Amino acid sequence: MAVPVEYYLVLSAFVFCVGVFGLLTRRNALLFLMSVELMLNAANINFVAFSYQYGNLTGQVFSLFTMALAAAEVAVGIGIILVLYRNFADVDVTEATTLRW
């Protein structure tokens, strides 16, 4: 007996909403990265659920590309966070406005 696709969609919507909430309410750069990762994982759940429903592997391939994109995003994000911490001794993103010319 298989789990219905609707359960995966509800889980994905919940995870995406948690990611959006974290993105809008937090000022810490690390929590920004974690929130974006949650949103990307919600998209991956959708890709895999619809791939399972329609019986093809396209959604799973897109999910792999999304995971590669998430890994690249984390690599760049950690570099930005290190520069923020080195310059301001804090990872608060509201301090980054002083980095402008």
TrEMBL record:
Lineage: superkingdom: Archaea
GO terms of molecular function: NADH dehydrogenase (quinone) (non-electrogenic) activity
EC number from the UniProt entry: 1.6.5.9
Gene3D superfamilies: 1.10.287.3510
InterPro entries listed in its UniProt record: NADH_UbQ_OxRdtase_chain4L/K, NUOK/Mnh_C1-like
Annotated Pfam families: Oxidored_q2
Subcellular location(s) per record: Membrane
Annotated keywords: Membrane, Oxidoreductase, Transmembrane, Transmembrane helix, Transport
Membrane topology per record: Multi-pass membrane protein
Transmembrane segments: 6-24, 31-52, 64-85
Major location (coarse): membrane
Keyword Hydrolase: no
Keyword Transmembrane helix belongs to the record: yes
Family of this protein: Belongs to the complex I subunit 4L family.
Protein name stated in the entry: NADH-quinone oxidoreductase subunit NuoK
Native organism taxonomy: Archaea, Methanobacteriati, Methanobacteriota, Stenosarchaea group, Halobacteria
